[in-house]
């Protein structure tokens, strides 16, 4: 499996998203995206499986992890590199028991209760935290209330003891990326800022430049493992 590098983490809907999703994914990775999550909440299991396989095939030689949102069954069946879970999905400890140690498991943190749940898990159960939404977003209408940058900073400070990398998610784009990164999180998780841009490759490059400016030691290597902030 491809290790997860969460520095610039793209969420795409390859079933119902705009344009040609595979073209978007290839361009975004060429522009600097380091991980891709397949999120298609309105898709059937078969549709999500086929879409995940298509993304995996498109990125076969790119060295970029492909993650499935919510659906552990699809992630395992498709041979994805990971799954991202929230409080309404399969419990992380059950997912780890079924998947074994190789699958990357992400966990959504929308507030202190989600951090408490993460703390209660055995070590090694989860590999990544997704904190947010930071700002209001139309991409996920059922999202929790925005944390704002101050709320993000507080959640990240409370999460540091877990020793896990974390990405900020929700309404993030070129205009606020630097402010979000200043909160100390490992990386950025975006959707429409890249997938909805006229030139996804250029949009990814702009966000990647913001990341390198905030973390100069990352340089220009697209796929080095990022375990936490500098």
- The structure class reads alpha/beta
Please list the strands of the largest sheet in the order they lie side by side. Answer: 1-2-3-4-5-6-7-8
Can you identify the CATH superfamily? Aldolase class I
Main sheet overview? 8 strands, parallel, barrel
- Mean pLDDT value: 92
Topology of this protein?
Layout (H helix, E strand, L loop, with lengths): L7 E5 L8 H11 L3 E4 L6 H14 L6 E5 L2 H7 L3 E4 L6 H8 L4 E6 L2 H8 L8 E4 L16 H12 L6 E4 L7 H5 L5 E4 L1 H4 L4 H15 L16
Parallel strand pairs: 1-2, 1-8, 2-3, 3-4, 4-5, 5-6, 6-7, 7-8
Q: What would you note in describing this structure?
A:
The chain is α/β, with parallel strands linked by helices and 230 residues long. The chain has a single domain, classed as TIM Barrel, CATH 3.20.20.70. 37% of the residues lie in helices and 16% in strands. It is built from nine helices and eight strands. The chain has helices at residues 21-31, 45-58, 72-78, 92-99, 112-119, 148-159, 177-181, 192-195, 200-214; strands spanning 8-12, 35-38, 65-69, 82-85, 104-109, 128-131, 166-169, 187-190. The chain starts with 7 loop residues before the first strand and ends in a 16-residue tail after the last helix. The relative contact order is 0.17.
Main attributes of the structure:
TIM Barrel, 230 residues, single chain, disordered C terminus, alpha/beta, 16% strand, 9 helices, 8-stranded parallel beta barrel
What does this entry show, briefly?
Helices cover 37% and strands 16% of the residues. With 230 residues, it is α/β, with parallel strands linked by helices. The chain has one domain (8-217): Aldolase class I (TIM Barrel).
């Amino acid at each position: 499996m491809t290790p997860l590098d969460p520095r610039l983490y793209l969420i795409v809907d390859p079933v119902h998203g705009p344009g040609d999703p595979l073209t978007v994914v290839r361009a975004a990775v060429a522009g600097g995206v380091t991980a891709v999550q397949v999120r298609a909440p309105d898709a059937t299991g078969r549709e999500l499986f086929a879409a995940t396989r298509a993304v995996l095939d498109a990125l076969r030689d790119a060295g970029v992890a492909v993650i499935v949102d919510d659906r552990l069954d699809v992630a395992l069946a498709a041979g994805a590199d990971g799954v991202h879970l929230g409080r309404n999905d399969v419990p992380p400890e059950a997912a780890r028991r079924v998947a074994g140690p190789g699958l990357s498991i992400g966990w959504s943190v929308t507030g202190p209760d989600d951090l408490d749940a993460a703390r209660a898990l055995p070590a090694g159960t989860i590999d990544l935290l997704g904190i947010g939404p930071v700002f209001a977003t139309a991409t996920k209408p059922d999202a929790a209330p925005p944390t704002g940058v101050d709320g993000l900073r507080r959640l990240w400070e409370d999460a540091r003891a877990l020793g896990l990398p974390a990405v900020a998610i929700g309404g993030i784009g070129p205009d606020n990326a630097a402010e979000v990164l200043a909160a100390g999180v490992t990386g950025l998780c975006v959707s429409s800022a890249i997938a909805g841009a006229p030139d996804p490759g250029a949009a990814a490059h702009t966000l990647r430049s913001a990341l390198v400016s905030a973390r100069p030691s990352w340089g220009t290597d697209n796929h080095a493992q990022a375990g936490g902030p500098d």
